[in-house]
Amino acid sequence: MSVVQRKAMLKAQGFFPHKKNVKGTTIIYSRKHATAKFVRVVVDSGIGERSGKVVRNATVKLCFINRQKSWREITVEVSTDNKGLVGLIRKVEASEKFVKTCKHCKAKKFTAKTGNVVCSNACWTAWGGKKKSANTTKKSSQKIVAQKKAATPQKKKSQKVTPKSQRTYPANKRVGKSSQKKRQKIVAEILPGDLVSVERIELDKFKQDYTGSILGVVMKIDNIGRVTTNWTANTSDLFDWDMPESNYYMTNQRRAFRFKVLSRSVEWAEAT
Question: How much is the pTM?
Answer without folding.
Answer: 0.51
